[in-house]
Design goal:
The protein has 294 residues and is α/β, with parallel strands linked by helices. The chain has two domains: 160 residues, NAD(P)-binding Rossmann-like Domain (Rossmann fold), CATH 3.40.50; 122 residues, Orthogonal Bundle (N-(1-d-carboxylethyl)-l-norvaline Dehydrogenase, domain 2). The chain contains 14 helices and nine strands. The chain has a six-stranded parallel β-sheet. The protein has a three-stranded mixed β-sheet with strand order 7-8-9.
């Protein structure tokens, strides 16, 4: 399939590589042009503008936050202006439910199709084409683009026709991961202050009680103190917790735990750890417990 791809960061770049490996024809655009040019040797065309990236009538975006996607999609000469009627915009990003609704409305007004298809997985999962996609939008359109989503993932879940529901799903999922980070951090702090080796604590619990890849991956990062380079930065975790709380307020859902975790992320950013992996939440909890940060 011919498709434009916008956003070649830690997640977007490996996703684009996998689309090329699967035989899809990509036209790539990135504000830092050198990142786009790095894909030329793999067979991608490099677009000189957002409009050029939309010429195939289908475009995928993988951008860091609402501001970046709003600028690319809704700004002058952006995706909404550039896509032809009937064109499809697939957003892989973690964004607010409010922006998802706005994008749905703006694309619909122009006879275009918006598909929310946020992904679960860290950069290593993106490189291995092992992401999990949660998609929502017009079902016929999702089936049309399924080969694109399948090329970058191990599983594609279609949860309905209301686009914002996929974004709410992603935010709820990220809240659960953040909750695991908080509980792991607190449990490790208690274990350390009680003379228990964190590695042994993780091995016993994950090997007998939880057996979860989330506990395994993040527990290992915390035990080894390998917070850099980040798979997902702490400052982005803070962004997601803010989106969770915004969605919760919109839906009239009290989430007191999310508020408490958000405050710990704020503390991490205030300590200068915003560019560390979001598992560095354990450093905040450790210091609050009077321990030397990992």
């Amino acid at each position: 399939m011919k498709v434009g791809f916008i956003g070649l960061g830690n997640m977007g770049l490996p996703i684009a590589h996998n689309l090329l490996r699967a035989g899809h024809q990509l036209t790539v655009y990135n504000r830092t042009r050198s990142k786009a040019e790095a894909l030329a040797s793999a067979g991608a065309q490099v677009a000189n503008s957002l409009g050029e990236a939309c010429q195939s009538g289908m475009v995928m975006t993988m951008l860091a936050d609402d501001r970046a996607l709003e600028e690319v999609a809704l700004g002058d000469g952006g995706i909404v202006d550039a896509l032809a009627r009937g064109g499809i915009h697939l957003s892989l990003s973690t964004i607010s439910t409010a922006l998802s609704r706005r994008l749905t409305q703006e694309h619909t007004l122009r006879g275009q199709i918006f598909i929310a298809s946020p992904v679960f997985g860290r950069p290593d999962a993106a490189e291995a084409a092992r992401l999990v996609v949660v998609a929502a939008g017009p079902l016929e359109a999702i089936e049309r683009v399924r080969p694109l989503l399948a090329a970058v993932s191990r599983k594609v879940f279609v949860i309905g026709s209301e686009q914002y529901a996929a974004n709410a799903f992603k935010l709820a999922g990220n809240f659960l991961i953040a909750s695991v980070l908080e509980s792991l951090s607190e449990a490790f702090a208690l274990a350390r202050k009680s003379g228990v080796e964190p590695a042994q604590f993780l091995e016993i619990l994950n090997g007998s009680l939880f057996q979860s890849p989330v506990y395994e991956i993040y527990g290992k990062i915390i035990v080894e103190g390998k917070f850099s380079p980040p798979g997902f930065a702490l400052r982005l975790g803070l962004k997601d917790l803010r989106l969770v709380l915004s969605a919760a307020e919109e839906a009239a859902v009290p989430m007191p735990l999310a508020s408490a975790i958000r405050d710990h992320f704020v503390s991490g950013v205030a300590r200068g750890w915003g560019d560390l992996d979001w598992a560095a939440l354990a450093k905040v909890v450790a210091e609050d417990a009077g321990l030397q940060a990992l």
